[in-house]
Design goal:
The chain has five helices and 23 strands. The strands form six sheets. The chain has a six-stranded antiparallel sheet with strand order 16-15-18-13-20-21, with no helix packed on it. It has a five-stranded antiparallel sheet with strand order 10-17-14-23-11, with helices on one face. A four-stranded mixed sheet has the order 2-9-8-5, with no helix packed on it. By secondary structure, it is α+β, with helices and mostly antiparallel strands.
């Protein structure tokens, strides 16, 4: 009888415990989360939505980033778990092909974590940083020069990786010294030490001319020396306008194999700027072969107003 009484009491207590455990009191029994893995285009705008951390709890959740690489790339909405671009410059495939983060998620009773893995899509960075000229650039064939704006040229110089300005320096180009036009068409190059680094691609070009509508001007590149070994870089330059001309080369594949030199052939006259004490130009103005790959003459006390942008990292 005592044994029976003990069994009855035990069953009753167990039943009472189970009822208490199953009581829906509204308290969390855990946070259920799902890791985020997504593909995302490089070169986004700041604030672009990357994705949302999926988490479920019976209580209100809060989200925070406990770790991320590279640091500062992402921001998160503390209430919704929505991830956004915090620093667009870090979303660069060539530098950071994968951006990752650990997300801390907490409710009233517990804390857990989830991971976010953002695999960047490799895009044509030149196209990404163009605006006005983007459509023309995308429609162009490889090897063609496309006219761009001064603002686009400067954006490319600032935004692409490992960019070097070659040929005429900014100081020389913007000098207040008197400028004039050469009396003849010629091919020229500047021997001022602003060379194209080894293993580089020239991808943009600018020059100044007083001639309108010229369609035979060319950019030239040599891997040999300042005075020899030049080859045409891409096709002919776009029809000229009077003043500054800016352009970008679609699909630049002519990588330098040594220190390189950038030259220009201007088929009518060339804008030059007299700068006292300079004597570092090579040129060929022979009327029969002024579109030349050899530049035998030296000694003009002036600079030719042209400049190129090169990079050691192909980003297109």
């Amino acid at each position: 009888m005592k044994v029976l009484r003990f069994l009855i009491i035990s069953i009753f207590l167990l039943s009472l415990y189970n009822c208490s455990s199953n009581d829906d009191s509204g308290e969390s029994k855990g946070i259920h989360v799902k890791n985020l893995v997504t593909n995302f285009d490089e070169n986004p705008n700041d604030g672009a939505v990357v994705g949302t951390i999926q988490a479920v709890s019976k209580n209100i959740l809060s989200f925070s980033i406990s770790f991320q690489t590279p640091a500062g790339a992402l921001g998160i909405n503390p209430s919704t778990g929505e991830l956004k671009v915090a620093n667009a410059t870090l979303f660069d495939f060539e530098t950071n092909p994968v951006i990752s983060a650990t997300i801390s998620i907490a409710d009233l009773n517990s804390t857990t974590s989830a991971t976010a893995t953002i695999n960047l899509n490799d895009l044509d960075d030149i196209a990404s940083f163009l605006s006005t000229s983007k459509g023309n650039y995308l429609a162009a064939a490889d090897g063609k020069w496309i006219s761009i704006t001064a603002a686009e040229y400067n954006t490319l110089a600032f935004s692409l990786n490992n960019v070097t300005k070659v040929a005429t320096s900014d100081t020389e180009y913007d000098s207040s010294e008197t400028s004039s036009d050469s009396s003849l068409a010629f091919t020229g190059a500047i021997n001022n030490g602003m060379t194209i680094p080894n293993n580089s691609y020239v991808f943009a070009f600018k020059y100044y001319t007083s001639n309108l509508g010229v369609t035979t001007n060319k950019a030239k590149q040599s891997n040999t020396s300042i005075s020899d070994g030049y080859m045409d870089l891409g096709g002919t330059l776009p029809p000229s306008i009077i003043g500054e001309n800016y352009m970008v080369l679609k699909g630049s594949h002519s990588q330098t194999t040594n220190t390189g030199f950038l030259g220009i052939y201007q088929s009518q006259t060339m804008r030059i700027k007299s700068i006292s004490g300079t004597s570092y130009n090579y040129y060929n103005s022979s009327t029969s072969i002024n579109d030349s790959n050899t530049l035998p003459s030296t000694g003009i006390n002036a600079v030719f107003l042209y400049q190129g942008l090169s990079t050691t990292q192909k980003q297109w």
